[in-house]
Every structure is written in structure tokens, then in C-alpha cells.
Specification:
This protein has 138 residues and is mostly helical. It has 6 helices and no strands.
Length: 138
């Protein structure tokens, strides 16, 4: 097996990971923060009633919560019934010969990392923040 020309030291890898976190943190400022906060409050069925008069209703209909939970459960159900949820395809003959081994390795790390639990949690957060949509391919 040929060695890669590109190698990262541990320090370079740590710098890269830190820069990814910083970029993510910096991109979450400005106009998007109040919107995501409001989406989160809608999901958690929290309202600020301080400006309402005593005679005004203080009732909340949990539509956002139900919509998010139904959306996540639909995705979860679809993942349960699908046998292969990803495909590995090589570009050239050498890559195609290694497809099976690469797929085995990816599945190993998916199981080891508890991918589905983390995926469904992140999907829920994406739906709550209005950043998630389901793309159906055919």
C-alpha cells in the first residue's frame, strides 16, 4: 500500500480541529442567534408572558414540539428498515477493489461512535432551529 504524501502532526490536527470549532462558533453570531433562540423556545413551549395583561390568555399550543418529534421519528423509522444507508464506490480499479474493506471500516466506526444516536440528536436540533430538511432521493 502506498504511503500518503500528506501527513499531519498531532499539533496540526489539533490546530485544525480548534479552527473548525472557532469557525462554527463565529458563524453562530449576528442575525441567526435570536432566530435559533426563538425556535428553541417554541420547541420547549416557553413564552414570555410578562407583557400580557391578567385577563389575556396564557395558553401555548405545542405544535413545534410535536412537529419536530414526528419528523425525527420518521427519519428514525426509515433508518431502522433500510439495510444499506450509504454506498462506497471507488473511482478507479484500485479503489473499486477496496470498496468492501472501506465499507467494513466505515460501518465499524459508525457503530463504535454511536452514530445513529448522535445523528438523531443533531437532526432534532436542526429541525428545532429551522435548519433541517429531509431530502428524498430517487
Amino acid at each position: 500500500m502506498a504511503e500518503s504524501k500528506f501527513k499531519m502532526s498531532d499539533e496540526d490536527l489539533l490546530d485544525y480541529i480548534n479552527s473548525c470549532f472557532n469557525e462554527s462558533d463565529e458563524s453562530f453570531t449576528g442575525d441567526i442567534k435570536p432566530v435559533t433562540d426563538e425556535c428553541w423556545n417554541l420547541y420547549r413551549i416557553w413564552r414570555d408572558y410578562s407583557k400580557k395583561k391578567d385577563w389575556q390568555a396564557k395558553h401555548v399550543s405545542p405544535r413545534a414540539f410535536a412537529s419536530v418529534e414526528i419528523g425525527v421519528s420518521l427519519v428514525k423509522k426509515s433508518l431502522i428498515y433500510v439495510k444499506e444507508f450509504f454506498v462506497v464506490k471507488g473511482q478507479d480499479k484500485g479503489d473499486r477493489e477496496r470498496e468492501g474493506k472501506v465499507k467494513e471500516a466505515v460501518l465499524f466506526y459508525i457503530r463504535k461512535s454511536k452514530f445513529f444516536v448522535k445523528f438523531l440528536e443533531s437532526l432534532k436540533m436542526a429541525f428545532i432551529g429551522g435548519l433541517g430538511c429531509i431530502k428524498i432521493c430517487w
